Every structure is written in structure tokens, then in C-alpha cells.
Amino acid sequence: MRIFGGRQGVLALAAAVGLVLIVLGILSQRPDPPAAGPDQGSLDPSATTSTTDSGAPAPSAEADDSPAEADDPPPLGPSRPLSVSVPAIEVASDLLQLGTTDDGTLAVPQPGPDLDKAAWLEDSPTPGQPGPSVIEGHVSTAENGPSIFFDLAELEIGDKIDVRREDGTRVEFTVYATREFDKDSFPTKLVYGGDLGTPTLRLVTCSSFDPDIGHHTGNLVVFSRLTDVREG
Questions:
Q1: Phi and psi for 87 in degrees, rounded to 5?
Q2: 2 lies in a domain?
Q3: Where is 14: in which H helix or E strand?
Q4: Residue 51: inside a domain
Q5: Are the beta carbons of 41 and 202 closer than 8 angstroms?
Q6: Residue 173 in 3-state DSSP?
């Protein structure tokens, strides 16, 4: 297992896989998951927050920080994540451990018994370590219809994400922002970089299904930060 705990490692990961997230949408997924809503939350806590016409905070193109707070728990050491749960959308999944394929693209769960499981990107920090950990999952598949992250667009600021780790700890993350990005202009530094000293978690799936081309043209990213650590 390779752990990227510093800026060079995370940016190397971004260069390897960030521009090829389109593979998440090529598997003939269904066109009818809930649509991603307006961008939510600020990605830059030091900036003055502006809003969209809908009243939601507008995205900052240059922001790459997460809003850590003084009472957030300190970072943990590495420990492989075993499962993830997102109570607000009734998600619970054992975690696969995936990396990149031989051609450098991001590996995704394949048809079979693991197709609808979430997967931790093994080249990112383990959840609770400093830096951005990444968990991906299909939004829907031709084989099974709605998949593990079908309702990811319904998450709101303040919702919780719970990850069980191999060392016996459970780490809780709190959602602070959601964004939808076009695959052709995916912001690799923002998603895979940012504050490398703060434990954060990104949930990633596909969005914006285009029936004319038969796959999704966007990626939905949920940004969250570590807010609790407990045993069991």
C-alpha cells in the first residue's frame, strides 16, 4: 500500500488520475439519478462568501482549503478503511481498495459481486490521516440500476460520513461543501490537493448523464472534514 502524506504525493496522484475520472461514467450507467443541485458551502474559509442566484454559496475557482475548526480532532496515523456509512442517504458499504490501472486511469468497481460497493483510492491518505482521502462509487450501472452513490447529490452541509478503520477506530467526517465539475475541466489540485495537513475526505461519483453519448459528463464531489474519532 502506498500512502501519500505530503504535497508531492498528492499532486502526483492528481496528475495520474485526476484527468481520467471519465471512466466512472463509461459503464452505460442509467440516466436518472437525482440531479446535482447548486453548489453548497465554501471551499475557502478565509474568503468572503458570495452566493448564487439560488442563495447557495458560489464556488471559488482558486480555493483549495478546507474549513477546519479549532475543536476538530488531531490527525491520525495510517490505517486501512474497512467500511463507510452515510446515514442521511442510507448508504452503508464495505470498502474495496482500488488504485490505478496499467494505463494510469482510475480503477472502478467492476461487474460482479463488488460492483455496487464503494472503494477507497489506495494512493490517497487513509481516512483520518492528514490530507484528502478519496472514496469513489458508481452512481448507477447498466447491470443493477441505482448504485451505492445514487443519492449522493442529496447530501447537505453538516451531514455526517462515518468510516470504520482496521485499527478499531471510527472516524466521523462532516460535509462542508459539494461541487459538480465537468470531466473535461476537472480541478485536480482542488480535489486531490488543498490543505495537506488537515484530515479531509472526498466522496466522488458521476453526474450529468448525457443520453446522446451514453455516459456522464460530470463528477459530483462531496467535501468533508474530520470532526470526531471514537473506538469501535
A1: -55, -35
A2: no
A3: helix 7-17
A4: no
A5: no
A6: strand
Q: Quote the domain boundaries for residue 221.
A: 7-44+68-231
Residue 36 bridge partners (DSSP): none
Query: pTM for this structure?
Result: 0.77
Each residue of 5-30: pLDDT tens digit?
A: 444 455 445 444 443 343 444 444 44
Which residues contact residue 5 at a Cβ distance below 8 angstroms, ignoring those fewer than 6 apart?
125, 129, 130, 131, 196
Those residues whose C-beta lies under 8 Å from the C-beta of residue 153, and which sit 6 or more positions away, are 33, 34, 35, 36, 37, 178, 207, 220
What stretches of 131-198 adopt beta strand conformation (E)? 131-136, 140-141, 145-146, 160-165, 169-182
Q: How many CB atoms lie within 10 A of CB 51?
A: 11
Is residue 141 a part of any domain in this protein? yes
Which CATH number characterizes residue 23's domain? 2.40.260.10
Residue 98: C-alpha distances to residues 67, 73, 95, 107 (Å)? 28, 27, 9, 6
CB-CB contact of 167 with 180 (8 Å) = no
